[in-house]
Write a structure and sequence with these properties.
This protein is α/β, with parallel strands linked by helices. 41% of the residues lie in helices and 13% in strands. The chain has a 6-stranded parallel beta sheet with strand order 1-2-3-4-5-6.
Length: 233
C-alpha cells in the first residue's frame, strides 16, 4: 500500500483574500481601468487645452473617466494625489487600487530609483478607500548590483507594510536598459524577453510579499516588425 501523499495548501490572510475579490468580477477576473497617470496626464491635458493644466482639472478628468469606465470594469486604479474624488464617483461594487509610488523618476540620478509618496502610508491608503496597494517599479535585472539592491529592499519594505495590514500588494515592473536607451529600438527588443523573465523570477520570491505581479508583454512588436522587414528585404 502506497503512503498517503499530503499536499500543502497555500493560504492567504482574510484581508488579502477580500481585497483581491473586491477588485475582481463575479468570474474572478480582474478587469481594471487604469487612471493613475499624473505627470503624463497633466502634459496631455495641457497640450489639448493649449495652456497649463491645474490640479483641479487633472482631478476633474479622473472623475469623468471613472464615471464613464467603471460601469464596464471590476476595479479602477487611481492615485491619492488627484484621484480621491474619483474614488467617490466609481460605479457600485467596483474595487479600488491606489498607487503608492511617486510618479516618474529623477532623470538626473542613475538607475530610475523609486520613491513613495511622502504624505501617504499603507494605512492611510486603506483609510482613503484602497482595496489593493499598487507600486510601479522600473527594473533592469542586468544593472549594477548596488542599484538593484536599493530597489529590491524598497519592494521588501512595501511588501512588509502590506503584510502587516493584510492588504494585497500588486507590483507592476517595467523593464528598461540605460545602456541601450531607446526601449522601442531593435536592440532592446532582443534583450527584453530575457529581462522580463529575470524580473519575474526575482520578484516572485516570498521575501517581497508580492501577491500579484503585473507583467508587461515580453516582446516589442515594433522591434519584431523591424527585424522581420530586414530579414525579407
Amino acid at each position: 500500500m502506497e503512503p498517503t501523499k499530503v499536499q500543502a495548501k497555500a493560504r492567504i490572510p482574510r484581508g488579502k483574500f477580500n481585497g483581491i475579490n473586491a477588485v475582481a468580477d463575479e468570474s474572478g477576473i480582474i478587469a481594471a481601468a487604469a487612471m493613475d497617470q499624473r505627470g503624463s496626464l497633466r502634459k496631455a491635458i495641457a497640450k489639448a487645452k493649449g495652456s497649463e493644466a491645474s490640479d483641479a482639472q487633472v482631478s476633474e478628468f479622473k472623475v469623468l473617466v471613472t464615471e464613464v469606465l467603471t460601469p464596464h470594469a471590476s476595479a479602477i486604479l487611481l492615485d491619492p494625489e488627484y484621484g480621491l474624488e474619483a474614488v467617490k464617483h466609481r460605479a457600485k461594487q467596483v474595487g479600488v487600487f491606489l498607487a503608492y509610488e511617486k510618479t516618474g523618476y529623477d532623470a538626473t540620478v542613475k538607475g530610475r530609483l523609486p520613491d513613495l509618496l511622502p504624505h501617504w502610508s499603507v494605512r492611510r491608503l486603506i483609510d482613503a478607500g484602497a482595496d489593493v496597494i499598487k507600486v510601479l517599479l522600473y527594473y533592469d535585472p542586468d544593472d549594477l548590483e548596488q542599484i538593484n539592491t536599493i530597489k529590491e529592499a524598497f519592494i521588501e519594505r512595501v511588501g512588509a507594510e502590506c503584510r502587516a495590514y493584510a492588504i494585497p500588494f500588486f507590483l507592476e515592473v517595467i523593464a528598461y536598459s540605460d545602456e541601450i536607451g531607446d526601449e522601442n529600438s531593435l536592440a532592446f527588443a532582443h534583450v527584453k524577453p530575457s529581462k522580463v523573465k529575470k524580473y519575474m523570477q526575482e520578484f516572485s520570491q516570498p521575501q517581497y510579499g508580492v501577491d500579484v505581479l503585473k507583467v508587461e508583454v515580453p516582446v516589442n512588436p515594433t522591434g519584431c516588425a523591424t527585424s522581420f522587414t530586414s530579414s525579407v528585404s
